[in-house]
Design a protein that fits this description.
This protein is mainly alpha-helical. The protein is about 40% helix and about 5% strand. Helix 5 links the parallel strand 1 and strand 2. The longest helix is centred in the middle third of the chain and has 20 residues. It is globular, with a radius of gyration of 22 Å. The N terminus is likely disordered.
Length: about 200
């Protein structure tokens, strides 16, 4: 497929799914790191809200059962998406939070930081991730990051591997024996670059 064809296809996708872009004066609006809602998603959700009566899932009645059904269906979809194989023997749980910052805070509060372990994070993580370092610091844990490639916003994977201990430097520095939290964003909060997660 040529670049021109790919660009034409991307224009079709924008027209079909992101109708709101046509009403914006800005060519590429800043969404502050959030995703624009596709018009198909908005239409489906609106239709569901107009046709379903949902109740508190902790109650016992038909609207509550309907809510519980959709809640469990969504949890299973999330687990399938991350290859966690939902079912009776699943070792993972999907937890709903208000937003990513709230989820990150829970991780920071619950992670077993100690003086033998710490947190290693990417240089372009969201500010919420930097907030976790306060939890780590309060437990005497180590705080480390790795760098970008020179003159680039791409990760220096050699720097990351070195920090992870493939070269032995972090092992000598005390990486062994403690729990470490490795934080890598799926997409850069600074540049929008989607980094390779396999390292």
């Amino acid at each position: 497929m040529s670049i021109a064809t790919a660009l034409e296809m991307s224009d079709v996708v924008l027209v079909m799914f992101f109708v709101i872009l046509h009403s914006c004066e800005t060519k590429l609006p800043s969404t502050t790191g959030s995703m624009l809602a596709p018009s198909t998603l908005v239409a489906r959700h609106t239709a569901a809200l107009q046709n379903l009566v949902l109740g508190n899932p902790h109650s016992v009645n038909s609207p509550s059962a309907e809510s519980s059904y959709h809640d469990e269906e969504a949890r299973e979809a999330v687990l399938r998406y991350v290859n966690a194989n939902p079912g009776p023997n699943c070792k993972h749980v999907a937890i709903w939070t208000a937003n990513a910052s709230a989820a990150i805070k829970i991780v920071g509060e619950c992670f077993p930081f100690n003086a033998k372990g710490g947190i290693l994070y990417a240089p372009d993580c969201h500010n919420s991730v930097l907030g976790i370092t306060a939890f780590a610091k309060s437990k005497g844990a180590k705080i480390a990051s790795f760098s970008f490639q020179k003159n680039s916003m791409c990760w220096d994977l050699d720097s990351l591997r070195n920090r992870l201990g493939e070269g032995g430097s972090m092992r000598r520095g005390g990486m062994e024996g403690g729990d470490w939290l490795l934080v890598l964003p799926g997409q850069s909060n600074m540049s929008g670059i989607k980094h390779p997660i396999k390292v």
